[in-house]
Amino acid sequence: xxxxxxxxxxxxxxxxxxxxxxxxxxxxxxxxxxxxxxxxxxxxxxxxxxxxxxxxxxxxxxxxxxxxxxxxxxxxxxxxxxxxxxxxxxxxxxxxxxxxxxxxxxx
Length: 107
What we know:
Radius of gyration: 13 Å
Shape: globular
Number of strands: 4
Number of helices: 5
Structural class: mainly alpha
Distance between the termini: 26 Å
Organism: Amycolatopsis iheyensis
Protein name: MGMT family protein
InterPro entries: ATL_DNA_repair, MethylDNA_cys_MeTrfase_DNA-bd, MethylDNA_cys_MeTrfase_DNAb, WH-like_DNA-bd_sf
Strand order of the largest sheet: 1-2
GO molecular function: catalytic activity
Strand content: 5-15%
Keywords: DNA damage
Helix content: 40-55%
């Protein structure tokens, strides 16, 4: 992986505001990364200083090994889960400012 892409992924994750979430796929699409798994790998290797807890799987759930800590951190920011799933329609970050809740797609 090149350093430019690595840093772009980090910058995008860092820009996800408190009280919102994004998926690994959202971050990959914004960064031009080839897959959401690459975003996960960057977070696992170099994400300790990022708001990693704001990044979820495509179905709105945390990775199983992070579920308790991640949902607790999100709850502290006002993001509430139904069981272990966050409602992406309600809490998903819209970086372009598009607030139309009826619109389908990444954002």
